[in-house]
TrEMBL record:
CDD domains: HDc (cd00077). This is HDIG domain-containing protein. The lineage of its organism: Bacteria, Bacillati, Bacillota, Bacilli, Bacillales. It comes from the Bacteria. PANTHER family: CYCLIC-DI-AMP PHOSPHODIESTERASE PGPH. Pfam families: 7TM-7TMR_HD, 7TMR-HDED, HD.
């Protein structure tokens, strides 16, 4: 009981005009929408940041949120390729020339010394030592001095030939270790010398041999760079496992965390500030659009709050989708997110134009949560627009399922289009077919959720949606059955007023369904005292003839307050209650005023004492119901309702309402009122048409029997 009273109190506060039109509350609602959505979504926009050290155990399983280059693995691969590159050398001819010159100098000096008889042996050896390469041994020089000039010349030629053979080809530093062996092989294979000559040639040649392959550092570096450039980058793909829960953090893991942006000592404050600006701009532009709408279509604070709840609901769904995608390591999960749910709910509870604007908003939020992926922005916008337009005219709950199938079809088309637009179609057929299947499932889920969530909003906030109106129009509704059983004349009157109101609403752009259903309930208060209303009187006896006019006025006008009380107990939405409260406005009960004036001998009767309490109509629908109620009652009371007389009565009723100021607070124009007359005439023609007089059947039977 306590919760019920609280709920009733909250409902009355939300329905109060002081709440619905309060500008300060309106500003608070806009701020709350932005703050709550930021708080919900910022965790999905900001990638998680881990401050881990080598050797530490990972507290969670971490997967890559993006596809990027593995810098450590790529660098290792490049270094391995560089290591395989051989050093670059260039053969130098100067080494060969220098070696030959040294050989020739040595042997030429030896020939001169041997021929010079004036030199002693010691002088000859000293002279030859000064001309010989440093590595030539003294024993070789002494042996050389024992040779004749002719032999020396032969040895010179043999030594030059061996030097030319060895240094004419690439001769590396590594070859120096085998220089003696190489010379010995040359001597054995190509020359026929005695042992002494072989030793002389061998020692001289080995002493002058040097590597002729000069290391080229710049060329070697270029070769390494070229080899490294051919190595493809090692990639970390979105969803790849970086480290499992309880896994050890290694240098490789730490490098990968840095590469994918998951390692930092502090959160990325710039992204947080940027997303705050994104939310502020989005909510600001949405607020500007809402506030610039025509007054009749501008959302009051209650509907603005409901828009905020829908936005929060969509934010929660986006966060859940991001969490599931991160858990399974694939963004494909986002294709099943029922992003069109928000647009469907806004269209049914508000209007489709606002749903289109909200579709932009929710689609960009989805793309932002999924690493600012444009594909999901496009996909979400297509689904949302199709969902909004598919439920623009709801005739039953089956409309949602049809809308769901249509959204599924368009989702599949969007997936195919996005696939065809990819220049690098890296995904396989399995992924492509999975995306199509999830897109098809998306629409069905959105329709089911819309049908499930909508009654919550209808009940919690007393919203009047097309679905709720269709349910209220059911003749089995307890209030309508009560009117039918206790006040059948009023019930018939309400049906005709509903026909008139629906026809008028269609032609002036009001809500036809609201007008019809509002007409069904506008006179439910008459069930309290049905016999006091002429349409329910089965005999010519009128109870008002026996009571004072002031009491009659009180009884007649009380059907408005009685009806409001019954509607509130039944939980009928506020627009229906408004129609009941304003369908007479502050009009005057002229019949009872005139009757009271005739009985008043002191002249104390005032016309304002015989007015309805009001209020006056503030919406088109309420104004249309006021006019239709009066038109139906007036035409029904006419003795001979010819078209001209009916039209005259309708015009008089409208003129009286205008002169009495009953239509001052609504936005019906004179043109609207004029075209409504035509709609009334067509409807009344079908209700109060002339009929032929049927003959007396019993009399005819008697005549036939004769």
């Amino acid at each position: 009981m306590v919760f019920s009273r609280w709920g009733q109190t909250i409902r009355e506060y939300l329905d109060d005009d002081r709440f619905r039109g309060n500008k300060r509350i309106r500003l608070i609602i806009y701020l709350a929408i932005g703050v709550v959505m930021y708080a919900i979504l910022v965790g999905s926009i900001l990638p998680p940041r881990y401050h881990l050290t080598i050797g530490q155990t990972s507290p969670v399983t971490i997967r890559s949120p993006i596809t990027t280059v593995d810098t450590a693995a790529t660098q290792a691969a490049k270094e391995a390729a560089e290591q395989k590159v051989p050093k670059q050398y260039e053969q130098s001819t100067q080494v060969e020339t220098s070696a030959v010159n040294q050989v020739d100098t040595l042997f030429a000096t030896a020939a001169q010394v041997v021929s010079n008889k004036s030199l002693s042996s010691a002088q000859k050896l000293d002279t030859l030592s000064s001309a010989a390469p440093k590595k030539v041994s003294q024993s070789t020089l002494q042996a050389l001095l024992t040779q004749t000039p002719a032999q020396i010349s032969t040895l010179q030629k043999d030594a030059d030939r061996i030097v030319n053979d060895l240094l004419g080809a690439p001769f590396y530093q590594e070859s120096m270790q085998q220089a003696g062996l190489l010379v010995d092989r040359q001597l054995l294979d190509n020359f026929d010398l005695d042992k002494t000559s072989q030793l002389i040639v061998r020692d001289v040649v080995v002493s002058v041999l040097k590597p002729n392959m000069v290391y080229q550092a710049a060329a070697t570096e270029r070769a390494k760079q070229q080899a490294a450039a051919t190595v493809p980058d090692v990639m970390i793909h979105q969803g790849d496992l970086i480290v499992s829960k309880y896994g050890i953090i290694t240098s490789s893991v730490l490098s990968k965390l840095q590469d994918v942006g998951l390692y930092a000592k502090h959160p990325n404050y710039s992204v947080a500030v940027g997303f705050a600006g994104f939310i502020a701009l989005s909510v600001g532009l949405l607020a500007a659009y809402i506030e610039r709408r025509p007054p009749g279509r501008r959302l009051d604070n209650l509907m603005l709050g409901i828009l905020g709840l829908v936005s929060v609901l969509m934010s929660v769904l986006i966060v859940l989708t991001k969490w599931v995608a991160s858990t399974v390591g694939s963004s494909s999960v986002a294709y099943v997110l029922p992003i069109s749910l928000g647009a469907m709910l806004i269209t049914v509870m508000m209007d489709s134009s606002l749903a289109v604007v909200a579709s932009f908003y929710y689609s960009f939020l989805l793309g932002a949560a999924l690493s600012f992926n444009y594909d999901f922005v496009f996909y979400g916008f297509v689904a949302s627009l199709v969902g909004a337009y598919s439920v623009a005219k709801v005739t039953s709950r089956g409309t949602f399922m049809r809308a769901g199938f249509f959204v599924s079809l368009m989702n599949m088309g969007a997936v195919i289009v996005l696939h065809l637009l990819q220049t690098n179609r890296s995904e396989d057929f399995h992924s492509f077919s999975l995306h199509i299947g999830l897109g098809a499932l998306n629409g069905i889920i959105a329709a089911i959720l819309a049908m499930g969530v909508l009654p919550f909003f209808e009940t919690a906030f007393g919203l009047l949606t097309p679905i709720r109106l269709l349910e209220l129009s059911n003749p089995n509704n307890p209030l309508l059955r009560q009117v039918l059983m206790e006040a059948p004349g009023t019930y018939h009157h309400s049906l005709i007023v509903g026909n008139l109101a629906e026809a008028a609403a269609e032609i002036v752009g009001a809500d036809p369904l609201l007008c019809r259903v509002g007409a069904y309930y506008h006179d439910v208060g008459k069930t309290k005292r049905p016999a006091f209303f002429v349409e329910n009187q089965m005999t010519k006896e009128n109870p008002h003839d026996k009571i004072a006019p002031s009491l009659s006025h009180l009884i007649i006008t009380s059907h408005v307050s009685d009806g409001l009380e019954m509607q509130k107990r039944a939980g009928l939405p506020k627009p229906i209650q408004d129609i009941c409260a304003t369908h007479h406005g502050t009009t005057i009960l002229w019949y009872f005023y005139n009757k009271a004036k005739e009985l008043d001998k002191n002249g104390t009767v005032k016309v304002d004492d015989f007015r309805y309490p009001g209020p006056k109509p503030k919406t088109r629908e309420c104004a249309i119901l006021m006019i239709c109620d009066a038109v139906e009652a007036a035409v029904r009371s006419m003795a001979r309702p010819t078209p001209n007389r009916v039209e005259g009565v309708i015009r008089k009723i409208i003129r009286d309402r205008l002169q009495d100021g009953q239509l001052d607070e609504c936005d019906l124009t004179l043109q609207d009122l004029d075209v409504m007359i035509g709609a009334f005439m067509k409807t009344l023609k079908g209700v109060y048409h002339s009929r032929i007089e049927y003959p007396d059947i019993d009399k005819l039977r008697k005549e036939v029997a004769k």
